[in-house]
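TL;DR need structure tokens for one chain.
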Amino acid sequence: MPWSPPKNTRPRTAEPRFPLLARLGRADRWAFDRVAAARLPGLEYVLPRLSRFADHGVLWFTTAGVLGLTGRHRLRRAALRGSIAIAVASPVVNLLGKQAFRRKRPVVDLVPPIRIRWKLPTSHAFPSGHSASAAAFATGVALEAPGRVAAPVVGAAAAVAFARVYTGAHYPGDVLAGLGIGALAACGTRLVWPARPPVARVSVTMDADGLVKPDGEGLVAVVNSVSGGSGGATAAILPGRPDLAAELIERELPAAEIVRLAPDADADKALAAAAERARVLAVVGGDGTVNAGARAALEHDVPLLVVPGGTFDHFARALGLESPADAVAAYRRGRLGRVDVSYVTPADGRRDDADEQVFLNTASFGAYTELVDRRERLEKRIGKWPALAIAAVRTLRRSEPVDLVLDGRRRRVWLGFVGNCGYGARGATPTWRDRLDDGRLDVRMIATGRRVPRVRAVAGVLAGHLPLIPGYRSWRATGLEVVAPAGGLRLARDGEVSSLPRAVRFGKHAGALRVFVPADQG
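>> reply
TL;DR here they are.
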């Protein structure tokens, strides 16, 4: 029998199926051991409690509540976006990610017992749900809030993520994956709800040399005490927003003159008289009051200081003035910018400034006026978006297109909207602009020759995406002529509804109004 060499019976070491993943796993465990062995004086007590407070999103929803209670529009948007991002990220991590990877929790032999003060979680480790929620909320806030607010939230999110490793709950890789998923979820909210710029840009043209005095001398502030739902039965018990703003002006600018409008006063007459003797005209109230103040400021060529005191304060927020304190700071800074003023006037061939009706935000006609009427009646009781939903359903169920002639073309118009400068949102109630001095009108309408599909119309309005509705048209222009062959035209202008002649013309006064702007403008 021929001799043959003995076979090698030593068992072979199995090669890993995914060498890269194996190396990453070894690096992940090494990093966990280093963190577990670290001693950070003072944080041994803080980080475990912070991690515990973040259970079930308690830390983030508490922060959202605090941001909402500030009353600042940007902070409320930040709180809402962060909360929505958590609602997206949490099921992705807990229902999909953890079930797909089923990674075991770390062995905590090296973690000091002082850090493990509560029972360790028994669910799968990858990815980290706490880190995903932290990153989702912090990124959502950072997309909307100013840096001084976003920075502490981001810092808290980073601390929670580190605490998940420091307390032995997760490997660093779990945390990094959770952070990535949370950040992507927050950024993904922009696909359905675009982030708005913090303020509409205005070219700063000059400093208010000689107009601004430290004590407010030469400033006349006209206060509409019934703006923003103030007044009525609660006026004798609690001061409204305009009254609180007036008290701030009296305290900060003692030499300023305060004019309080009586409920039955002629606001246009009072504002014109105030502008005639003022070096700076301030208006405290909502968008309707600001509109009247702008007319007076234009007529007497004085700069306008906008002090928010209404329900929505669209123009003040577009300037970056979210509170009366912001307005006082803008006055003291003394920076003036020029913004566009749009107008609508009878198209009878005569040019008479007295017939011009100006608007700083929007003018709308057709079913828009009915929708605005119904929404405004409901929104103070149930909030803006529920009011919009109910108003949309009721209006779109009953309204019919009207015959109009637009720049010489006959159309059946169902909804018509004209904005002072280009608006970013494409919904039924756009609220933000990138600039206030672009010299253009933003025209949008639903013009259709047949009956509008009600279900798609309601979906388009509620989804904030009018292009879903057949017949949607939008364009930018410097002017627009509208003729209603059947009679007068009903127009909602900066929240005030009025009736106009059968033929009107929309136009622009580019850069006509001088306004005080915050220090970060320009």
